[in-house]
Amino acid sequence: MSEADMAIIKPEMMMKSYIWLETTDGSIQQVEQEIAMYCPMICHEVLQKGLGAGSSKNCAISLPQRVNPAMLSLILDYCRFHQVPGRSNKERKVHDEKFIRMDTKRLCELASAADSLQLKPLVDLSSRALARIIEGKTPEEIREIFHLPDDLTEEEKLEPLKNLMDDPRIRLLNRLYAKKRKELKEREKLKGKEVEERVDERSVDDLLSFINGKDHKVVKTSKSKKKNKKRKEHKNKVSHNLHSKQQGVQIVDETASSLGGVSNLPSMEDDIFSLKTDSEDGYVDDGMDPVLKEMLDREVEDFARRLNSSWVLSSGQERQPVHFSINGNGATRRLTAFQVMLGSLILLMVFGWQVPEFCGVTVKGNSRVRISGLTGTEGEDEWFDLSYLILNEASDPPKYDNVPADREELVGDVLSFTLLFPFELQLCISELELTLRGHKPLYAHIIELREL
Amino acid sequence: MKPGIDDQSKPQTMIQEKYTKRYQNLKVAEALSNNHLYPFACNELSSIIDLGYSQLPKDLKAFIFRDCLSAFRLLPEMNTSAAVSAANLLVKSVESAFPKQKKNLAIVEFKQAKVALKRRTKSHDEHIDLPSLPQDILVHIFSFLDLYSLLSSSQVSRSWNQATSEGSLWRSLFDLHFTHKVLIHIYPGIDWREAFKNEYILYKSSKMLRSGRGYCSYCDSVVWHDNLRCPKKQCRLKSGKKPLDLMLTHQVVNYLLGTTSSSDESDSEDEAVRGLWAYPTLQ
């Protein structure tokens, strides 16, 4: 009896049913049915179209576009292992760990192929592996690994950062803002109107108000600016903008009347004002003084322009005691790393702002910044390598063991700024810590800021 | 005389063992081999060294030394800039606190690591085109990420940026970070990302997240949190949706050294500053 049974059973068992699968490149594969049926998508196809589907070469089941032959074989290996019911969970786990060890490119292909075949466990597995790769990396590093283009504008990148500010930092920022206002008032009395000086102040003000509490407004304005496509016009008016920005600082505190009082290029201002009003359509008035709003708009627009403008080599201008040099024309190199731009912007602005006549900042290449006047000495060691901070180039930072006393506050303020962007420029803190280790009071200050 | 000496040495060895056991429970060494936790572990090591190296018993000092060396040895494999800066910080702590011989050994190790790292980055020159991942896969991947990684991803490229604005991601992060805030007005069309941002600012969360550490009351230990949860499965099942109590680095160090942690900010500052100038002569 049993032998007869065996005789009957055997041929049935021998007759494994196969399914024919066709990938988009036209190649057709024959796969055991039970393995192929592990994939829900194939299962549905077979069930939907009836038994005829996939039963022969001619009516092979065509697979979605994202499944190429290499991936198909990988997936089938996976299915072959897992569809066997007798495996323990531990065995499956061990197999999966080994299975998932492949380069990033294949992981991506695998994830998308598994998704199109609706094979959820494999999708989970590959997604987790990819998440583990992404974890803890900066955007630049992620871009490198996945070979992705850097196609976001700076505002879009700023968006998440701006949103995650902390209260202590806002306090710091306000403190700095107040200090700055005071200092500028003093300077206003003492000095004449040096245009280039103002450049830096203006930019810091941009930065400050851009970040400080007016964010939501600022974002709207900058976006509407984009729509108007007036950026290019403004680029041409760089120098004029710089001149007219002087107003901004005082105006923020004072009334509109002072506008008329300032002599520099009033016509340009009008131009800018008219541009402003255009873009203010559909713009919610949150009850602020309209002049103030306009000033802020201008700041924003300028800041946005700045961010999109290129940093330039200023090799011809080594020793410039007054300002940071950005050439509006000439050779430009666009920095892709957001951190470098913003980090350098901050450092440049702050250093340039505080004591412009002694402390000049020049940009060399796309990553080295010389902050002259910081140590009071001249020479190579004044080059403060931003790239070391942010881009991880292996060069030793110069040591600032002998930072003079009046610069202490300055450096402290720089550090405060870096804290505004906690996770992006967190590196900044540790690196600056290194360079300033020799200087005890500053180092204590760093630790204090760090614990905020 | 003899019993006196015995009495003195017994409590000492007990104390030493206590410290060593605590340190081992902290599992710093394991974290070093994890790509994501490496910077956190290095920062913790350097804090421990800064704040209390001189107070540690001899064998614990040996452990720390060993972990520093392995940190430097593992550095070339971690190709993130966060890892490099964390290692730099560690080197500086080592330079200021370690005795001469150990310091030199550690620095040699570090320099070798830097050279190896440089060699690695130079040979990394592939120009292959990766297939673009579909949006729903991206969202699925991002659902496994912690907050900072998600924010990093949002700045990578346009398609990734769009994927990160998916509400469900931020909703689960919100539930994770702010479980106590159950009384939120949930209306259709709520922007979870905005809601998260507002809560985050309100609770000044970033400070707490910087250490990577949390205290799990179920297993009664200080652990490296895995997206705010205890990495152990049993604890996760027991705790359900509740996140860990996050810890600051100096709290972890206090735990290790057995010093009472003052909740006062200024106290911890002083401690930190004092500890920094812990030259070997100060005992």
Shape of chain B: globular
| Ends apart, CA distance between termini of chain B | 27 Å
Helix count of chain A? Answer: 23
| CATH level-4 homologous superfamily of the domain at 16-146 in chain A | Potassium Channel Kv1.1, Chain A
- The string of secondary-structure elements of chain B, in order, is HHHHHHHHHHHHEEHEHH
Structural account:
The complex is a heterodimer of chains A (452) and B (283). With 452 residues, chain A is mostly helical. Among the domains of chain A are: 16-146, Potassium Channel Kv1.1, Chain A (2-Layer Sandwich); 151-188 and 432-451, no CATH class. Helices cover 59% and strands 6% of the residues of chain A. The model of chain A is unreliable at 9-13, 160-171, 195-203, 213-288, 307-337, 348-404 and 415-440 (pLDDT under 50). Chain B has a three-stranded antiparallel β-sheet. Chain B has a domain at 134-205: Monooxygenase (Up-down Bundle), CATH 1.20.1280.50. The model of chain B is unreliable at 262-283 (pLDDT under 50). The chains are: A mainly alpha (452), B mainly alpha (283).
